[in-house]
Structure to design on (277 residues):
């Protein structure tokens, strides 16, 4: 038995911000990102405020606007953002309006201003191992956290729990690019523990509170907790902290583990879009 380290991502995020300040200074202007959102959604509004505050540290300007109400106006809004020279990037914040799907939003924004890795061109580059500069920020953040913990990921046995197109799938591809040995589990996986118990590291991104318990891990494993669920007891992750204490060597804090790094990676994507404009 040993103490389980609780990992926060603030130091990694600060390193990214220092790099971004230099890149923005070289660019000679502040990158500008349009953040579209449901103004009536309290969670989205809170996230927009946090992102705008964090953007100051990177020299990035966030411009928030509500989604248009009808489909025709919304399509014009999204496509107009793509052609607006004063805007370098566009973030369509979730939840999206029910009148449009994720794929259509990505198409209308275009690859050049997509910073979520959802446009087929950007997702395809990740799939081909040809570049992850516009990959989904959470996936990028998970790789950075693992590299901070392990150094080289060559041969590290990683199990990814969750196969969404915004975390699990791009993350698995990016880990393979680092020569990690990757297993991907999802909602139809039989006997999850048989896959996770052999892993050096487990990354869980399901949003199922307390999913990963002591019986799912081996002694000394590293647990990267991406799932965040709001409960009456506050924010909780996919990892049952009480259960894995003393067995896991490291567990990322929720929300201050992967969260700060994800925000920094998203701002990095915005700066990359401005540099390419």
């Amino acid at each position: 038995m040993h103490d389980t380290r609780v990992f926060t991502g603030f130091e990694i995020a600060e390193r990214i911000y220092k790099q971004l300040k230099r890149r923005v200074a070289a660019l000679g202007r502040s990158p500008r990102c349009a953040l579209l959102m449901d103004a009536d959604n309290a969670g989205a509004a809170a996230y927009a405020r946090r992102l705008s505050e964090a953007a100051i540290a990177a020299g990035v300007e966030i411009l928030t606007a509500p989604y248009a109400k009808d489909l025709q106006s919304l399509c014009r809004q999204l496509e107009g953002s793509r052609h607006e020279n004063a805007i370098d990037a566009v973030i369509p914040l979730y939840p999206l309006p029910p009148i449009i799907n994720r794929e259509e939003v990505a198409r209308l924004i275009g690859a050049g201003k997509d910073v979520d890795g959802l446009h087929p061109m950007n997702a395809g580059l990740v799939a081909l191992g040809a570049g992850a500069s516009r990959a989904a920020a959470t996936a990028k953040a998970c790789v950075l956290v693992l590299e901070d913990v392990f150094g080289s990921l060559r041969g590290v046995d990683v199990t990814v729990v969750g196969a969404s197109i915004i975390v699990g799938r791009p993350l698995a591809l990016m880990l393979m690019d680092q020569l990690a040995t990757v297993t991907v589990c999802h909602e139809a996986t039989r006997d999850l523990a048989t896959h996770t118990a052999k892993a050096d590291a487990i990354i869980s991104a399901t949003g199922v509170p307390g999913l990963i318990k002591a019986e799912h891990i081996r002694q000394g494993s590293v647990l990267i907790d991406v799932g965040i669920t709001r409960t009456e007891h506050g924010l909780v992750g996919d990892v049952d902290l009480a259960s894995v204490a003393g067995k896991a060597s490291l567990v990322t804090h929720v929300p201050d583990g992967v969260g700060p790094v994800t925000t920094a990676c998203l701002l990095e994507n915005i700066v990359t879009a401005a540099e390419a404009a």
